[in-house]
Amino acid sequence: MKRYDAALIIAASENDANLFYATKFLAPDPFIYLQTSEKRIIFVSDLEFERAKKQAKVDEIISINKYKKNSSKFIEIAEKILKEYRIRNILVPENFRLADYSFLTDKGYKIDFKEEPFFEKRLIKTNEEVEAIKETQKYLEEALDEAIRFLRVCTIKDGFIWYDKKQVTSEDIKRIINLRLVKNNCNAKHTIVSCGNDAVEPHNEGYGALKANEQIIIDIFPQSMNTMYYADMTRTIVKGKAPLKLKNIFETVLKAQQLAISIVKTGVDGKDIETKVREYFEKNNYKTNFNDKKQGFIHNLGHGIGLEIHEYPRVGGSSFKLQEGNVITIEPGLYYEDKGAVRIEDMILVTKNSYINLTKYPKYLEVP
Questions:
Q1: Rounded Cα–Cα distance for residues 330 and 355 (Å)
Q2: What is the pLDDT of residues 51-71, one digit of tens each?
Q3: Which residue, 165, 245, 271, 358, has most beta carbons within 10 Å?
């Protein structure tokens, strides 16, 4: 902040994690956030003013209506505020609107963009944030457990999974998971329950009847509507008996994950951890092909998690030395059309000399 008079965000905090992080005020409509060297101020409509006074964790709350005369656009109002506070040099996040940038620069303001993370402190989770993530994870695990208990009472016929006289589908399992999450005030979007060759595509959500004796990748990443913090976990299961090739992949991915997690601590580069996982896969003859038909370990090892499902730091791909307080996922995976597909994902809290695994759900392949 030393080179700038103020940081400026214009957004709806319901859709902007940085704004919610800065204010702890959740609003569906845009408002203006101004952070100077002295204080943090929000400018909100009269509709939200009283609620903001009760909920927002900022130094000052001002009604936006006093600036609305002859101004209907938020950027015009923001320019009046900047003028009043004698601010000329502004720092904005990378998602700042181009039209707003053009408007202010035309008025003579100097604007610099900051890439994510806009607030560096978001990388380091507080105890309160860790507890929020753990609570969401608890509800996630309860939801998956309900789905697994359902699958245990299902039967196998003609290579498919049945409950009573109905074939069980990906949509059925998603419904069980998502309804349980909703009961705990969590929002689950795009839950993955992918089977067979669908599972070879890491982000294929899965559709239709689930096959027995084939991999089913279940990836759940809900957001708590109480705290707004996410959790993320993936398990790979088989209803019935897994083929030997798939069992071998499962054991290899599991050992790769254990290797990766064991290395986690402050100061270790996430890229180096990913490299060791790739070397382990290669050593065990699981090659990665990034050509037309991408197969093998075809994604990064993990990512940060918090107010967004994918946030900094990244684990792999680019260099980043882990810091105490980072919450990251470790999710190695192998994907082959002819052998099978497995992904296993846990959430890890980085500590000074080690780590804490925030994920408690067991890892097994076969569901009888």
A1: 12
A2: 999 999 999 999 999 898 877
A3: 358
Mean pLDDT, all residues of the chain? 96
Question: pLDDT digits over 328-352, tens only?
Answer: 999 999 999 999 999 999 999 999 9
Contact 312, 117 (CB under 8 A): yes
Which residue in 8, 19, 6 sits closest to 307, CA to CA? 19
CA angle centred on 252, ends 249 and 258, rounded to 5°: 140
Residue 127 has φ and ψ, to the nearest 5°, of: -60, -40
pLDDT mean over 43-52: 96
- The pairs formed by 22-30 with CB atoms below 8 angstroms and a separation of 24 or more are 22/58, 22/119, 23/56, 23/57, 23/58, 24/55, 24/56, 24/57, 25/51, 25/52, 25/55, 25/56, 25/57, 25/58, 26/55, 26/228, 27/52, 30/74
Q: What residues contact 94, with CB distance under 8 A and at least 6 apart?
A: 113, 114, 115, 116, 118
Q: For 80-101, what is each residue's pLDDT tens digit? A: 999 999 999 999 999 999 999 9
pLDDT (mean) for 41-53: 96
Report percent pLDDT > 90 for the chain.
94
* CATH of segment(s) 123-367: 3.90.230.10
* Token pair 């996410």: residue: 230
Q: What kind of fold does domain 6-118 have according to CATH?
A: Creatine Amidinohydrolase; Chain A, domain 1 (3.40.350)
The pLDDT score that the predictor gives to residue 2 is: 52
Peptide bond into 313 cis (omega under 30): yes
Query: What pLDDT score does 1 carry?
Result: 42
Tokens read off for 332: 């190695």
Question: Given a cut of 70, is residue 152 above it in pLDDT?
Answer: yes
**Tell me, what amino acid is at 66?**
K
CB 55 within 8 A of CB 27: no
Sequence-distant (≥ 6) Cβ neighbours of residue 193 within 8 angstroms: 170, 173, 174, 177, 205, 206, 210, 216, 217, 218
Give the tokens for residue 162: 């049945």
Angle at 12 (CA atoms; ends 112, 18), nearest 5 degrees? 50
CA 319 vs. chain centroid, Å, equals 19
